[in-house]
Request: fold
Amino acid sequence: MSMSSSLAEASSPAPAHVPEARRRDAVKPSTAFGCPRDPLNHRYVYAVISSRARGLSLGVNLNPRRVCNYDCVYCEIDRGGEGAEEISVDSQRLSFELSEGLDLVLSGRIQSRPAYAHVPREMLALKQVAISGDGEPTLCPNFTEAVETVVHLRAGGCFPFFKLVLLTNGAGLQERDRLEALDLFGPRDEVWLKLDAGSPEHFQRINRAPCEFPAMIESVRRISQRRPVVIQTMMPSLDGRGPSGEEIQALGRTLHELKESGARITEVQVYSATRPSHRGHCGHLPLGSLTRAARRIREISGLRAAVY
Reply:
């Protein structure tokens, strides 16, 4: 079987082991194949069981108005016709909500919420606080102030240390002051940087971005030369098919070139669509396809690549 045909398999249903709500009166959260995303009655801070975090993550939504420079085919957010302008985050409210969320998780009281009643206790241990959003978090007008708010809360000593993770496509980090916000991150914190494609054609097919592919690659290079990054590579099934073998090879070569030019990439996270897209032709790739893709990326790039 060719690499192209082996990776372009039909999508499969969610794994059977993923927990589902068993109580009819349970709160129905946004889900990732049964894994709850719980807004906690907050504007900015939510809880989610994340496969890439290997457990519970507290998310910090810096973009509740859903503004993004990408229009990824796999995104669960429908941005059609919104045209919304981003507004600044209320840092005082963010600090209050994050304190509440941390107390809820670290005290164990989160298991009393209906959405988590049947989730194993070990899955409810806090793995990280993730700066993310319903859009691109670095486009938040006061992004640096928001990062400072989270870092200062951690430094205050009221809670045990938690790892901070930024999930980004890097768009806002073209501005110097926002890029310098990464200097607030400690050595145990991480930046998860999106790179879904190794060719201009696949970049536009998947990410539907206004920027050109070379400019996006240069952004990845610049950010990853400043501090180590984890690359996020989403591989959805589109119309029942995954990326071709040629595209996987192109991605591997692109990652290899980035590494050789001084990019500090600690890992490539290979994963598939975990929340229902508002576009019906996008789905989840089988584990076998993801595993073969990760193996090929390792062979070509020389980087660590793992399936999540």
About this structure: The chain has one domain: 3-9+18-307.
